[in-house]
Design a protein that fits this description.
By secondary structure, the protein is mostly beta strands. The chain has two domains: about 290 residues, Porin; about 120 residues, OmpA-like domain (60s Ribosomal Protein L30, Chain: A, 2-Layer Sandwich). The protein contains four helices and 22 strands. The strands form four sheets. Strands 2-5-6-8-9-11-12-13-14-15-16-17 form a twelve-stranded antiparallel barrel. A five-stranded mixed sheet has the order 18-19-22-20-21. It has a two-stranded parallel sheet with strand order 1-10. Helix 2 packs across helix 3. The chain is elongated and about 85 Å long.
Length: about 425
């Protein structure tokens, strides 16, 4: 599919999703109190942000289903504070999250998330706060900017807003404005291990208390989370553990700070089905009784990433004095083959033109690399065939003795990025050219 075709498809899907009708009516559960909120970019973890941003033109679509047991608060007595620690109650809640994100420039991306109420079951509806229908609970635009990165450390910040679509939302109050969130992100990569920390603040533009709800609107909150992952390269699978929660800056007349706090943990697996498609599944539980925390949670989801839908204008050139390395060439191949996609032919012409301008050199080495998805032996052969494709194109455009140019397949043994996410794998699937002086 060409770039224009992809953009039309993305635009059409966005319009369809945005205008799907359906408001969620509720008398207790607030949308921005959603604890399980998958990141829109699908990078590295589940709900915890990584510092990495989608590269320019990369698009990610995410879809998650999550089932939670005993998340609805229960009220005992007239005007009593809600509780979620009662063992004689049994309710369940099923929801979905639709996510999309796109990298707009180096280190900057935007995203959009839409949590959707699917179904709920309640054994006893007396004195329990529930949804009164199904539909989109909120719209949540976001953006992330990475301001520092190295081989091991990364730092970024994320800004998002919650636009409530729930009527009579007691956690926000009547006629409330949007909720704003600011988070600071730090992560570190140690080989196949990744660890991340998020900390931030949530500002609410609360309205008046909803009559007879038993809950005053929540105050501003501190939000925090941490994640740890390990990539099993031979299995194309990452194991992920997370802890995430929030604490209000103050209590309310009928909810203490502890009662209106939340903290959960999850453990899950992320399996790379293909280089573009990742599947996730896992389970979680509350670490303390609090706002919307479940006895247990089960989730599953997919992230599909593709692109870039627009290209960089040039490649990267590094001159060490002894050799010149050409990288970020923009050369993309059809899946599982050594044949270039049509959009890469112009990039190949730019590479050939640059080599023509090179002064005298002793040797030109074309190196092919792959990601770690698939069998090692297959990847080794594929990287060699792709290097030879570029070698043959250079030989057609630049008259060189055969002994001065060499194609080498490096396979998956020299990654320059994390093989545990889409764009890390995309960076590792590359061809580099070394001009030895």
């Amino acid at each position: 599919m060409h770039v224009i075709g992809k953009l039309r498809w993305v635009s059409a899907l966005s319009v369809i999703v945005f205008f799907i009708p359906g408001f969620t009516f509720a008398n207790v559960i607030g949308s921005d109190a959603q604890n399980f909120a998958p990141t829109p970019d699908g990078i590295d973890f589940v709900t915890v942000h990584a510092s990495e941003t989608l590269e320019p033109g990369i698009i990610n679509f995410g879809f998650y289903i999550n089932y939670a047991q005993n998340t609805f608060p229960t009220f005992e007595g007239d005007g009593g504070a809600p509780s979620q620690s009662l063992l004689d109650k049994n309710d369940s809640f099923t929801s979905a999250d639709l996510n999309v994100a796109i990298g707009l420039m180096d280190n900057f991306q935007v995203g959009f998330s839409m949590p959707y109420v699917i179904n709920q079951t309640i054994d006893d509806s007396d004195n329990i706060g529930v949804f009164e229908g199904s539909g989109f609970a909120e719209f949540r635009p976001s953006m992330k900017y990475k301001f520092y990165s190295s081989d091991t450390w990364g730092f970024a910040t994320s800004v998002s807003a919650n636009f409530n679509r729930i009527e009579n939302n007691p956690y926000l109050g009547e006629d409330a404005g949007p909720t704003m969130n600011l988070e600071f992100i730090a992560d570190r990569r140690l080989g196949l291990w990744n660890v991340a920390f998020n900390v931030g603040h949530r500002w609410r533009d609360s309205g008046d208390a909803v009559t007879n709800s038993g809950i005053d609107p929540l105050p501003n909150q501190w939000i925090y989370s941490t994640a740890l992952s390990y990539l099993f390269e031979d299995l194309d699978t990452k194991i992920i553990g997370e802890i995430y929660g929030s604490t209000p800056t103050e209590g309310t007349p009928n909810l203490s700070t502890r009662q209106s706090s939340s903290i959960e943990a999850l453990l899950g697996l992320k399996y790379d089905v293909t280089s573009n498609l990742a599947a996730q599944f896992g389970a979680g539980t509350e670490l303390s009784d609090g706002t919307s925390t479940p006895d247990y949670r089960i989730y599953g989801g997919i992230n599909y990433a593709f692109g870039p839908v627009f290209k960089r204008s040039s490649f990267t050139e590094v001159d060490t004095g002894e050799e010149i390395t050409l990288s970020d060439l923009g050369l993309r191949f059809k899946f599982g083959t050594a044949e270039l996609v049509e959009d890469s032919l112009d990039d190949l012409e730019m590479v050939v033109a640059r080599i023509k301008r090179a002064k005298k050199f002793r040797k030109l080495i074309v190196e092919g690399h792959t990601d770690s998805v698939g069998r090692r032996g297959y990847n080794q052969g594929l990287s060699l065939r792709r290097a030879q494709t570029i070698q043959q194109a250079i030989e057609k455009g630049v008259p060189l003795p055969s002994k001065k140019i060499q194609g080498i397949g490096r396979g998956e043994d020299h990654p320059i990025a994390d093989n545990g996410n889409y764009q890390g794998r995309a960076r590792n699937r590359r061809v580099e050219i070394r001009i030895v002086k």
